[in-house]
Amino acid sequence: MNDPEFAELLPDTRRALLHRIAVAQSEGRTPSLVGAVLREGRLVWSAGRGTVDGSVPGPDTQYRIGSITKTMVAVLVMRLCEEGRIDMDAPLGKYLDTPEAGEATVAQLLSHTSGLAAEARGPWWERTDGALRPELTDLFGERPQRHAAGRLYHYSNPGYALLGALVERLRGEPWAEVLRRELLEPLGMDRTTPAPVAPYAEGWAVHPWADALLPEPMVDTGRMAPAGQLWSTVADLCRFAAFLLDGDERVLGAEAVARMRVPASGPQDPGWTSGYGLGMQLSRRGGRTLVGHTGSMPGFVATVWASPEEALAAVVLTNSTSCYAAESAAADLVAGVAEREPRIPAPWRPRGEADHALLELTGPWYWGATPFALRLRAGRDLELTPLAGTGRASRFRAEDDGTWTGLDAYYVGETLKVARTADGAVSHLDVGTFVLTREPYEDSGAVPGGVAGTGWR
């Protein structure tokens, strides 16, 4: 809501956040750590611990962000899809002459269900110069395909190398240049770069049994760069988090970004704790859904987590190979603000003149004997919710042909239709072939199999 009255965090909240990153830096034994929180589209807090070149790191200090790079590459692929240059469900081989994964679809590569190996051909690609793998054919070892495409989730770094090559093939220029022009510049992310630009943190390994450091190499990973090359700052990544929450028409609209957040691999039913969308990780922690990505490269661990329902995001960057506290710390920064300073809802206002044809659809409906309510939302969208505490809830997007398309869980992609009688009156709802009537098992001829003539007894 961007209300100036609620722009700044309360002193108790700021101290709690500082305490959390101080614990993460100390217990995680990392030379430095910097964290930040975004609320309602604004960076509202940032602090650093430890030192970089003798100074406390700040919001402008660069760290390597590893696989957060993947989410940015996914945005470039989504832009090509929105332009009609790519069919998400078409095989990669339709667009890119690749030695492997040509039968996997673009969506499967984005969601890590292509079945490709997790890592590129040795030696350890994150610590060796990309010149060792100059061509796409050099990325794969003897068994590049570990699983059949579409069979299961299997994280693949080479899969994103192929997606970066796809962007280059269709745009006709290096992926990093496309990224700069199409995403970084529009979002004002001028401190996100393929190579470090001062001030930046050096990457370190921390001895597991002594307080000693070992410098990690900082290599250009070449063809593998789309999987984890980039450097960034908490200030830039907060701008990126704002985009992941609300979209930006200069880059990708809110609806397209929301599709990236839908679990494409991993369970979607209540009770799931983790999943992967189209280039985006999803995690359920403490009753909230977080979206974003984690990242690691030798000497660095990074995390961006955002909570769409609370318009909150947090970023944590560290310069130690094994500082795994970064992921939980970022989640705790989101939770700390959400719990101490719950989001102030925008004032309710009527939507203006009502469409009586749509109002006629609202209210109670019954799937057999189970009660549901249908509500009218923004525009012509509808929302179906169970009234008995359990049942299949979903939002439905209005289509131009007078139907609605499900957006959630069981009904995602399914069609809601309004059936009418010969005189035009509403008869019943058809939701993916399930019939909903105005009364429980209404004797109107609409219920498949009919209703017993004796009625309720």
Written description of the protein model:
By secondary structure, the chain is an alpha+beta fold. Helices cover 23% and strands 22% of the residues. The protein is built from nine helices and 19 strands. The strands form four sheets. An eight-stranded antiparallel β-sheet has the order 12-13-14-15-16-17-18-19, with no helix packed on it. A seven-stranded antiparallel β-sheet has the order 2-1-11-10-9-8-7, sandwiched between helices. The chain has a two-stranded antiparallel ribbon with strand order 3-6. Helix 2 crosses helix 4. The protein is globular. The relative contact order is 0.13.
**What is the helix/strand order?**
HEEEHHHHEEEHHEEEEEHHEEEEEEEE
Rounded mean pLDDT score? 93
Helix content: 10-25%
Largest sheet: 8 strands, antiparallel
Provide the spatial order of strands within the biggest beta sheet. Answer: 12-13-14-15-16-17-18-19
Beta-strand proportion = 15-25%
**Cα distance spanning the termini:** 53 Å
Low-confidence stretches: none
Rg from alpha-carbon coordinates? 25 Å
Please count the beta strands (DSSP E, at least 2 residues each): 19
Shape: globular
Alpha-beta classification: alpha+beta
Quaternary organisation of the protein chains = single chain
Tags for this entry?
457 residues, eight-stranded antiparallel β-sheet, alpha+beta, seven-stranded antiparallel β-sheet, 19 strands
